[in-house]
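Issue 218. Parser rejects a valid record. Input:
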Amino acid sequence: MKRIISILFISLFSVWSAYSSGYNVGDKAADFKLKNIDQKFISLSNFPEAKGFVVVFTCNGCPYAQAYQDRLVEIDKKYKSKGYPVIAINPNDPSLAPADSYDKMVSVARQEGFTFPYLIDEKQEVYRSYGATKTPHVYVLQKKGADLVVQYIGTIDDNYQDATKVTTPYLANALDALIAGSIPETATTKAIGCGIKDKNKK
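Output the parser choked on:
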């Protein structure tokens, strides 16, 4: 009986850990390998010249994610040449969010002119390891030797509804600080967006 209780406890703890864990600023992030919209698999190691990455969990159907599509393209165009390309990841289960299917990812990327990889987290393991909860949810990673160190987590800016009324571009500020050789003044903010659709998470 004690053995059964012990096994149940370990199982429940493992499930709880999978959904409660995630990266904090200063943590070392693990690389991943996910399918891009061109059917090819991409890892962060495929970008040896990058100084870091803007990893953003996003999707097709969420109004918040849609509002930031153009801004993500602008951020990628501006910061990719400075060493920080955008890597977008769709974490949603398409059985719960049909608008976030792989085929529709391909269509949206073409329609919106995405200049960055748009990957699908089919097993929904990467978003859990990062601790993402919303779409969009941003993680800025900086290369330090062989490590990818998390330097910023949160939202893109302070006005998802109107890009012309943004007063604090949190993501851009964090990237500018890192490029200048300093640390972001604001390293964490609250991600604003739709909850990630995962049928195994109640």
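Fixed in the parser; the record now loads. The CA atoms of residues 128 and 158 lie 25 Å apart.
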